[in-house]
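Let's do one together. I've listed all components of the complex below, 368 residues spread over two lines.
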Amino acid sequence: MSDFVQLWVYLSATPLFGLTATLLVYVLAHAAYFRAGQAPWANPVLWSVIVLACGLLATGVSYPSYFAGAQFIHFLLGPAVVALGWPLWLRRAELRQRWGRLLVAALAGGSVAAGSSLLLGRLFGLPQELVLSLVPKSVTAPVAMGIAEQIGGIPALAAVFAVITGLVGALFGKYLFAALRIPTDAEGWAARGFALGTASHGLGAARAMHVNADAGAYAGLALGLQVVLASLLIPLVFKLF
Amino acid sequence: MNALRGMVWLLVFQSAGELLARGLALPLPGPVIGMVLLLLALRWPAVQTPVAECAGFLLSHLSLLFVPVGVGVMTHLSLVSQYGVRMLAVVVLSTLAGLAVTVLSLHLLQGRQPLDAASPPAKDGDV
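Okay, and this is what the predicted structure of the assembly comes out as:
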């Protein structure tokens, strides 16, 4: 028994543990997600985070020692943001043709997502630091962290809010779009995907890619646009006011 | 091999983006500048073919990349217990508002001006 404990202490302190645990739990959660017919509630990120966080709390492994391994996955967020240039390139013809309305929708949705979190956060009496960490939540996590840092929020918290925001889009987008009577033809899918990419970044886009190819492509496009718009405009607006 | 080369390109553009962002004190994060640089370089087949393979792989597993930060919620349990419900309410309400405004504005703009989505854009020299 004490051998086992020693082995556990050794393993949980090496980067191998965090990396293996993250990949293993995610692969299992992903399989369960497909078993459940890709139902929104079965979202693999939601369940991976719950299982891993509960597992770490139960075994007493600290977050920093988990992250020593998980950082290898986290690191890939940077190249993934660069890779967003690819869906933009693929859809460059549409972008050139429809840039006006896409830009209007991206600006409208992005400013409502950021502005409403500022207003609601103040309305609900949240501390300033928390409110400022909420503002960039509709942008993909690594960029949200950078924006939060610039405007005086807490980067780590901004990343968590971004993940929750992504999950909200992936979980409830379907029902919201149905309630708004957005059709499921090619244009409807484009609008749905674009909204998911704008308001709930990579996780919304991942959901859109699973559901429909058109929606996925527009989600990738929206995600790339939002990254550029938000990281330019949010710090600028805060500098001016 | 192409996927590996694609990864090299992504990292090269990210590094160039970081250098530009820091060197010129630009207001954009390094990876975002890297994305714009990549977009400009994609017309070049030596960049395009490898990046296609690697970006496709990376973006199809995009949601995995959010797991490590998401688990970080456990380090903020005191904030969560104090403000959790209110924070969640803000996130849910403002995300739904953002989704609704985006989808409706695009839907209305598309409706007013019917798209020629059915016919693919003609290439130069297409008859």
